[in-house]
């Protein structure tokens, strides 16, 4: 039985379980895997704008220098870690060399890639604080070919305090990543849900920011503060920093609510909103338990297709610059 009527309003006796797995709306699923013929007909994507065709990227023969992307939103639970893992894995599938940086003392990115942060003696914390420590000593290979991880654990929370008294405290991560730039095509930093010194370090190291935004009430709350912070970092610390895009996550095409939130986000941020939208599916929480990206855990799922499309969109934007 379909849980919704056409207006997606709940009827008496029905309840909405946001975590229930459902067959994706075929129309929506199609927007996640566009083909050229459809594109020519100028189809409208989930953001209400014509959906461009994002080509399959050409393989690379040389790697680096890396483009550094900070995955950032001070609101918790919006899909930063999920997007870091799966965008990274999708870029790696397209032959890009990818480094993921766990920059949250919770270590969720490390856990999501099957690493137990509590067992680590050396993490990104050591790389930040100890001069002379080589990045290779901290780097871990992941199960995804071409994708490496700089893991973190609770030790990183001390860095926030210890860095305060350092010279150039905002650029500690930038310094730590410098020797790795030539080995990778993309470095994606998973930020913690705060706008503290660690996040400022990520923004100082980055070329661009991706802001995941949950398609929920109050999604836009706090985004002004985030864009102000990005602006300040650009003025004072990192003139190269750009807002790459707003990524709508946990979108449910079958609820009026999700569609309204997305429409407001597009109204507010216009071309900064990625055409690719990540649907809500219980497959994502499952991948965390499995400790692997959705692109390998459920390779044919809509969620995997969405992050592959995001990877193509990110690469297309990069080449268009
Ligand atoms: N598209 C999605 N559909 C359903 N669940 C999702 C989706 N994306 C993420 N989730 C789930 O929502 C929860 C929060 O996601 P995630 O950890 O990626 O957010 P976060 O922004 O990194 O959180 P934090 O601010 O705590 O670091 C996780 O349980 C994750 O599995
Ligand atoms: Mg997280």
Automatic annotation (TrEMBL):
Residues 66-242 form the AAA domain. Coiled coil: none annotated. Residues 1-10 have a biased composition (Acidic residues). SUPFAM superfamilies: P-loop containing nucleoside triphosphate hydrolases. Residues 1-56 are annotated as: Disordered. InterPro entries: AAA_dom, DNA_Partitioning_ATPase, P-loop_NTPase. It comes from the Bacteria. Pfam families: AAA_31 (PF13614). Belongs to the ParA family. May play a role in septum formation. This is Chromosome partitioning protein. It comes from Actinacidiphila rubida.
């Amino acid at each position: 039985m379909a849980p919704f009527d056409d207006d997606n309003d709940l009827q008496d006796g029905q309840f909405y379980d946001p975590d229930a797995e459902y067959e994706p709306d075929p129309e929506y699923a199609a927007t996640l895997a566009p083909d050229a013929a459809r594109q020519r007909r100028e189809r409208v994507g989930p953001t209400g704008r014509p959906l461009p065709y994002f080509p399959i990227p050409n393989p690379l023969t040389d790697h680096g220098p890396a483009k550094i992307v900070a995955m950032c939103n001070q609101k918790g639970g919006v899909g930063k870690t999920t997007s870091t893992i799966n965008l990274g894995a999708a870029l790696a599938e397209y032959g890009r060399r990818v480094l993921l940086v766990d920059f949250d003392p919770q270590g969720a990115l490390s856990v999501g890639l099957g690493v137990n942060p509590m067992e680590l003696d050396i993490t990104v914390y050591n790389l930040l604080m100890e001069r002379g420590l080589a990045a290779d000593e901290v780097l871990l290979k992941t199960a995804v070919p071409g994708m490496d991880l700089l893991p973190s654990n609770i030790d990183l929370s001390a860095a926030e305090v210890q860095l305060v008294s350092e010279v150039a405290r905002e650029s500690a991560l930038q310094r730590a990543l410098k020797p790795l730039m030539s080995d990778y095509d993309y470095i994606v930093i998973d930020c913690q849900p705060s706008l503290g010194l660690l996040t400022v370090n990520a923004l100082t190291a980055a070329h661009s920011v991706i802001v995941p935004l949950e398609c929920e009430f109050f999604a836009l709350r706090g985004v002004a503060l985030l864009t102000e912070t990005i602006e300040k970092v650009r003025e004072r610390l990192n003139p190269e920093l750009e807002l790459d895009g707003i990524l709508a996550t946990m979108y449910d095409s079958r609820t009026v609510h999700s569609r309204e939130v997305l429409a407001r986000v597009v109204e507010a941020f216009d071309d900064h909103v990625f055409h690719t939208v990540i649907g809500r599916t219980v497959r994502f929480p499952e991948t965390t338990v499995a400790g692997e990206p959705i692109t390998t855990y459920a390779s044919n799922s809509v969620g995997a297709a969405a992050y592959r499309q995001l990877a193509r969109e990110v690469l297309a934007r990069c080449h268009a610059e």
